[in-house]
Design a protein that fits this description.
heterotrimer, A mainly alpha, B alpha/beta, C mainly alpha, A: MetI-like fold, about 70% helix, B: alpha/beta, 2 domains, seven-stranded mixed sheet
Chain lengths: ~280, ~400, ~550
């Protein structure tokens, strides 16, 4: 049967690639600017792609030190990774179990619970700085990365639940019923069957949670009291001044900031295969 | 053994606790290094630790207003003066009158009057001035050796040079940003508001300034369209712009290969001397700080002549100590000094915050959207009055 | 018979609430209050004679520049008396206002006097907060000052602590009346118990917060921090909840049964739910409460629905006004709809193409298409803005190359909107692409195999297999996308900046401007935010009903 695919007309393939290349060009064009400014010696915002190129900005970035001569860039990069990975992981754990409940069980308050998840997304975050500050202050997690982790992991949970529930809904109940007949407990089913089958959704939701934490600026800047606890977006924003911005450094920083996301996405892509095609039903 | 360590730890904790102050700032690059050097010097002389924290400008105000009332704020912080009114009304900053009138009151007379005036709100002094920023005239020496003395001369030279080179522009400044339009606005005698919350932006003087800005932008044909700071930097660096009116930060963006000079903004005409906005930054003390005495001592050091010299030389700041400009040879600093004497400090009243967006919008309407000056200013006035009345 | 019962129930409810409110009002008035924040005044009402005697008043009139200054009303400064330690307690700002001194110089002379009063000793600072409590110990000749920051910490907490308690109690009452079956006796019991321990708390707070009767108590007050009081409040609230829970479990069999019956799902949800309740709902809740206040210079004043009437009814004055609520709302809706349409279509198409088996360079393409999402949108939004520059932007340069005129993108509403649109489409399609890629994995391939065997064309496969199976998986992403686009702040703010004349501002940028460009009018901003929230909630409710019906059909 699959042979019919391989006989696809070459013209179609070429057309596909042409369209893809065209779209890629549109996608990459603005990015060229980012690279231009990252490698340019001047700190002004470029309006053309021509000019000289140098690695100075990257060197400066990596050699920024605080008043105690600690290298900040590496430390802040690590802070960001630490916070984002753990937030994503915790968020995923919390969300997966809750989403499973929402998907598989019928219980009182289910509908309003789902709405509640959605509701948390609707309130614009502009005004939540002060309440969150108060809460963290009272708990004592104010100047600590764990405070950020707490905030990030719980704020990614609602939309994670929402997305995962949608995915769990598409897993047919027959699989679980078969397992129950074989004598497996609910929890075992959850761990051994549902989770492996949901790899794509888990991967994407994890990526998304990671990105939310990775790009978050204002809470990190407000809650942290020492530069060595800053995360990377804060470092990036420090190049934006009252009257002018150091675009060279900002662009170089942006390039560095984007790399982990791209790498993570590549890794996630591996998990985007499988799911129900892995022969789960046939057994 | 453990107890011993614990005791030692408590000892050192107590020590550290009692002998350190926290300072927040938004400096980067050279200015930051200069500040760190000053802090180090002070630490060594006085055996007190200065904890510096650099905060991105965008987050500064929010961080202060969130942390100060909750006792998490710094002891000292460095920032511009425009939010003093708000902060004072909210009770966040300490009054420094005593410092102002201590035995060595001569100390503060060293500073520019306008700088000190900028730090006073409702007759109380809230910060000690550190440095200022004021727009000046940058000119490309490829096209002209000495700066023009009047705008007529500037326009003439521009037109002359532009005739020969079609890609060249004569003058560039962010004409739809009220901060830069200020050199015209206040020179023509425009005012923004009175203490009684009366809005004065549709006065004849204000309209005249807008008229002149429109004239410069649309009729002389020496300016590019839709000017942003990016446009100014690019054009100047490509030798396609002769004159730029911009702040001191512009020099950091100019390519090393461009030979340029700095001068005060030329006279607009016989009666009108340019009076651009002056942004002042000063050192503030947190009202809830428990180390104010130490903070004052440090601020005294930070704003003193020795530190000012360092900040000027290594940090590239235009410091507020006027005496340091007397024997200076640097053309840039001379220009800043001269311009500072004919400038308008940004009002620190809380009312000021209402004016920025409407005035910028009015400029955009007049210059880019062909709306009449009367209409633009009148509608801005109505908008602001509505906001004030709420 | 039922109506009669209802009447009695309601009257109980009202009585009970009123009683609690009075209790709390008394509690509030007894605590140390902050006077008008404009003057930053603070006064301890120490009308206690005992304190008077112990503190040995010298004179009744305020006389500046003297060492034993004694201001009017409730503030005292005392000179030490031989071996005894006497506190200097005063409020510097109050003194300023009392003395009517208006010049810098005179104010500073007062400072000088205060400073001198502690013998110019360098160990203390005369500037400590609004409260300076200094002991002058004649023996050692030193002046000690207590940092009264802790008192300030106690008192400076934005919304007065009392509000938390009040809200908590009202919630408890509401909850209890919803869940407890219609049985007056039990309601009375619950009410009585709640009243009892609230009284207990009242007394407890009186003890903690009472006016200092002697120096020891001043020390004590100083040592109490705000967090202690907050902890007390939290304990009381938890107590409230426990009581209600206890009574509910005993009294409302149905609810208890439900909890036991569904304990598995509830347990699964509990960890996530707790975090969400604390860190997502609490700020949301406080944001909504904030919208009922008017905030000026950090002063909060309760204004009922004034903010809302201003926005909604004031906006009716001139509906077409681009700065008004209705125009902005209209633009926001159009913005959201158009964006989602393009995000979805483009993202889906690319995902479908990339999902094909055997597509070469698939990895490279997917990296390329993920990049707009990966790069911080602050810089890319500004790059897009510069591309739309009239004279130097790439887009106009390209148009000129094709023979068209330059467009001034940001001086006309439609073109400014389009500029925002292109930027946001560029930023947003990767998300839908990724979601679709994930959703495509859930479609079993044997369906396609069967369809091919039946002779279905590619388009038919798409229409009858792909689309229907994608729908449930993509629906959450679309809903989330709608919400996020509705609230997409960065693009509008950075690209068009709302130009021309606020006509491309959406609701969220207006909310932002009220908070940060118009002098911290957080109340107004919160009202905008709450309206956004209500709109989105209603939308979700309505479409939920519609899609709920759809689901039943399957």
């Amino acid at each position: 049967m699959s042979k019919t695919y391989k006989e696809a007309v070459p013209f179609k393939t070429i057309l596909t690639h042409v369209i893809l290349i065209f779209l890629s060009f549109i996608t990459l064009y603005p990015v060229l600017w980012v690279f231009k400014m990252a490698f340019s010696p001047s700190q002004g915002f470029s309006t053309s792609l021509k000019g000289s190129y140098t690695l100075d900005n990257f060197i400066t970035l990596f050699t920024i030190v605080d008043s105690e001569q600690n290298l900040l860039m590496v430390r802040q990069f690590w802070n960001s990774i630490f916070v984002s990975v753990i937030s994503a992981f915790i968020g995923l754990v919390l969300a997966t179990s809750a989403a499973y409940a929402f998907s598989r069980f019928e219980f009182k308050g289910k509908k309003s619970g789902m709405s509640a998840m959605l509701i948390t997304q609707m309130f614009p975050g502009v005004l939540v700085i002060i309440p969150l500050y108060l809460i963290l202050d009272n708990i004592g997690l104010l100047n600590s990365l764990w405070g950020l982790i707490l905030v990030y992991s719980t704020t990614t949970v609602p939309f994670s639940i929402f997305m995962l529930k949608g995915y769990f809904d598409t897993i047919p109940k027959e699989i679980e019923e078969a397992a129950i007949m074989d004598g497996a407990s609910q929890f075992t089913i959850f761990i051994k069957i549902i989770i492996p089958l949901s790899r794509p959704a888990l991967a994407i939701t994890g990526l998304f949670s990671f990105m939310t934490a990775w790009n978050e600026f204002i809470l990190a800047a407000t809650f942290m009291g020492k530069e060595k606890y800053y995360t990377v977006p804060v470092m990036l924003q420090s190049f934006v001044g009252a009257f002018n911005t150091q675009w060279g450094l900002f662009a170089a920083g942006s390039v560095i900031v984007s790399l982990p996301v791209v790498i993570l996405f590549l890794y996630v892509q591996k998990h985007l295969v499988g799911g129900l095609t892995a022969g789960g039903i046939k057994g | 053994m453990k107890i011993l360590i614990l005791i030692l730890f408590m000892f050192s904790a107590v020590n550290i606790f009692s002998k350190s102050i926290t300072l927040w700032h938004a400096y980067r690059g050279k200015e930051r290094k200069a500040l760190e050097k000053i802090a180090k010097n002070y630490e060594q002389e006085n055996k007190i630790k200065i904890n510096l924290l650099a905060i991105p400008y965008d987050a500064f105000d929010k961080k202060l207003t969130a942390s100060i009332p909750r006792m998490q704020g710094p002891d000292v912080f460095i920032f511009a003066n425009d939010k003093i009114g708000n902060w004072a009304e909210s009770g966040l900053i300490e009054t420094l009158n005593y410092y102002f009138y201590n035995k060595k009151r001569l100390f503060l007379t060293l500073m520019f009057d306008t700088s000190i005036k900028a730090m006073v709100y409702k007759k109380k002094l809230y910060a000690i001035p550190l440095a200022f920023k004021v727009p000046v005239l940058f000119y490309n020496k490829k096209y002209i050796d000495t700066p023009p003395e009047s705008f007529d001369e500037l326009i003439k030279i521009s037109k002359q040079k532009m005739n020969k080179d079609k890609k060249l522009f004569g003058l560039g400044y962010e004409n739809t940003n009220f901060f830069f339009h200020s050199f015209l606005y206040f020179s023509f005698g425009g005012k923004l508001f009175t203490d009684n919350k009366k809005v004065l932006i549709n006065s004849q003087e204000a309209k005249n300034s807008f008229k002149y800005a429109k004239y410069l932008a649309l009729e002389t044909k020496i300016m590019p369209e839709e000017i942003t700071s990016a446009v100014l930097t690019t054009l100047f660096n490509k030798n396609q712009l002769i004159f730029v009116i911009n702040g001191p930060w512009f020099s950091a963006e100019i390519k090393k290969s461009i030979d340029y000079g700095v001068a005060p903004i030329p006279m607009i005409d016989e009666q009108h001397k340019p009076k651009p906005y002056m942004s002042n930054e000063g050192a503030f003390i947190n009202k809830y700080s428990s180390k104010k005495y130490e903070a004052i001592k440090f601020i005294k050091y930070l704003t003193g002549i020795e530190s000012a010299k360092l900040r000027m030389k290594e940090g590239g700041q235009s410091v507020s100590v006027s005496s340091l400009y007397n024997h200076i040879n640097d053309e840039k600093l001379k220009a800043f000094n001269l311009q500072a004497q004919s400038s308008e400090p940004i009002s620190n009243s809380s009312l000021m915050n209402y004016f920025w967006a409407p005035m910028t919008q009015s400029l955009k309407k007049v210059i880019e959207q062909n709306v009449s000056i009367d209409k633009a200013l009148n509608s801005a006035k109505l908008k602001i009055e509505k906001l004030l009345s709420k | 018979m039922d109506k009669g019962r209802k009447k009695i129930n309601i009257s109980y409810f009202i009585l009970f609430t009123v009683f609690i409110l009075i209790l709390e009002a008394l509690l509030y008035s007894k605590t140390i209050k902050m006077n008008s924040l404009n003057e930053n005044l603070f006064s301890i009402k120490t009308k206690s004679n005992k304190l008077f005697q112990e503190l040995s008043v010298k004179t009744q009139n305020f006389a500046p520049l003297q060492k034993d200054i004694m201001p009017i009303q409730d503030i005292f400064i005392f000179k030490q008396k031989q071996d005894k330690r006497y506190p200097f307690i005063y409020n510097r700002d109050l003194i300023y206002s009392l003395t009517n001194k208006k010049t810098l110089e005179e104010n500073s002379l007062l400072d000088k006097a205060i400073y001198d009063a502690c013998d110019n000793n360098k160990d203390i600072s005369p500037f400590n907060e609004r409260y300076i409590i200094a002991y002058n110990n004649e023996k050692s000749g030193k002046c000690y000052s207590f940092i009264s920051s802790k008192i300030d910490k106690l008192l400076n907490s934005g919304l007065p602590q009392i509000w938390y308690l009040l809200i908590g109690v009202i919630l408890i009452i509401l909850v209890s009346f919803v869940f407890i079956p219609k049985n007056n006796k039990n309601r009375v019991i619950l009410s009585v118990i709640t009243i009892l321990y609230n009284i207990f708390f009242y007394i407890y707070s009186l003890i903690i917060l009472r006016n200092p009767q002697n120096i020891k108590e001043i020390d004590k007050i100083i040592s109490i921090t705000k967090s202690n009081l907050t902890q007390t409040f939290i304990i009381i609230m938890i107590l409230n909840l426990l009581f209600v829970a206890f009574y509910i479990s005993k009294l409302n069999q149905k609810l208890t049964d439900t909890l036991i019956k569904y304990k598995t799902p509830y347990l699964y949800i509990l960890p996530g739910g707790l975090g969400i309740a604390l860190l997502s709902f609490a700020p949301l809740f406080s944001g909504i409460i904030l919208s009922f206040f008017k905030v000026k210079y950090g002063n909060y004043s309760f204004t009922w629905f004034e903010n809302y009437t201003d926005i909604l009814i004031g906006g009716l004055n001139n509906i077409a006004n681009p700065e008004g609520f209705y125009y902005t709302f209209f633009i926001t809706v159009i913005w959201t709809a158009v964006n989602i349409f393009f995000h979805l279509s483009i993202g889906m198409v690319i995902a479908l193409v990339l999902n094909k088996k055997g597509l070469k360079f698939k990895k490279i393409y997917s990296i390329i298409f993920i990049i707009p999402w990966a790069i911080p949108n602050y810089i890319t939004a500004l790059i897009w803005k510069s591309m739309f520059h009239k004279q130097f932007g790439s887009i106009n340069n390209f148009l000129v190359y094709l023979g068209f005129d330059r467009i001034s993108w940001f001086t006309d509403t439609t073109t400014a909107f389009l500029a925002n649109l292109f930027t946001n489409i560029w930023l947003g399609f990767p998300f839908m692409m990724v979601m679709t890629l994930g959703a495509l994995q859930s479609i079993p391939t044997h369906l396609y195999d069967a369809a091919v065997m039946d002779g279905a064309t590619k388009w038919q496969q798409f229409k009858y297999i792909t689309l229907p199976m994608l729908k449930p998986a993509l629906l959450p992403s679309v809903i989330l996308g709608i919400i996020w686009t509705f609230n997409m702040f960065n693009v509008i703010y950075l690209v068009s900046g709302g130009e021309p004349n606020s006509s491309t501002d959406i609701l969220i940028t207006e909310a932002y401007r009220w908070a940060f460009e118009r002098n911290g009018r957080y109340g107004y901003s919160a009202a905008y935010a709450t309206i956004i929230f209500i709109v989105l909630y209603l939308y979700n409710y309505v479409t939920g009903k519609i899609s709920g019906k759809g689901e039943e059909d399957e």
